[in-house]
C-alpha cells in the first residue's frame, strides 16, 4: 500500500510538478478558448447549410459531417500536422490542433444544431413571419433560441468531450495539461503528476457533467 501511495499519490512529487502542470493547464485553457467558440460557430454554419434549399450544398455538408465524425480525431490531427508539410503547408502545433478539433467539433455541433432546429415546429416560423420579421430575424430571435434550449444538454455534453480531446494535443508536442504532466513524470520517474492531471480534469469537468444531467432532467420535465 505504501509503495502504491508513493508511486501514484506522492504529494511531494505533485508539489514539485505543480508549476509545470499549472503552465500546461493554462495552455489547455487557451486551446479550449480557441476551439470551443470556433466549433460552436462552425457547427451552426454546418447546420444552416444542411437545411439549405440547395441539394448540392446539403449533400456536400452531409459528406463533410459524416467524414469528420467518422474519422478519429487523433488520426485527423496527425494527418494535418505531419501530412500537410508534404503539400508545402507547415502549421504550428497550436494551429494544427485548432484546425483538427475545429473540423471534428463543428461536424458534431452541426448535427446537434440541426436536430434542435428541426425540433422547432413549422408554426413558429409562420408565427414569427406574420409579425413582420424577416426570415433572418425570425431565425435569430425566435427559432434559434428555442432550438438551442432543446439541445442544450447535448451541446454542453459535446463541449465536455471537446475539453477532453485537448489531451490529444500532446502527440504533436503541444504543452497542454497531459503533456506537461508526462514531462514531469519522465523527470521524477513517478506517476503522481499524471494522477494530478487526472484530478484537475475531474475537478473541472465533473461539475459540468452534473450540470448536463440536471439540464436533461429539467428539459424532460
TrEMBL record:
GO terms for molecular function: transmembrane transporter activity. It holds the Pfam family BPD_transp_1. It is found in: Cell inner membrane; Cell membrane. GO terms for biological process: amino acid transport. It is a multi-pass membrane protein. Its main location: membrane. Keywords: Cell membrane, Membrane, Transmembrane, Transmembrane helix, Transport. The chain crosses the membrane at residues 20-51, 63-81, 187-209. InterPro entries: AA_ABC_transptr_permease_3TM (IPR010065), ArtM/GltK/GlnP/TcyL/YhdX-like (IPR043429), MetI-like (IPR000515), MetI-like_sf (IPR035906). GO terms for cellular component: ATP-binding cassette (ABC) transporter complex. Residues 25-213 form the ABC transmembrane type-1 domain. Belongs to the binding-protein-dependent transport system permease family. HisMQ subfamily. PANTHER family: BLR6398 PROTEIN, MEMBRANE COMPONENT OF AMINO ACID ABC TRANSPORTER. This is Amino acid ABC transporter permease.
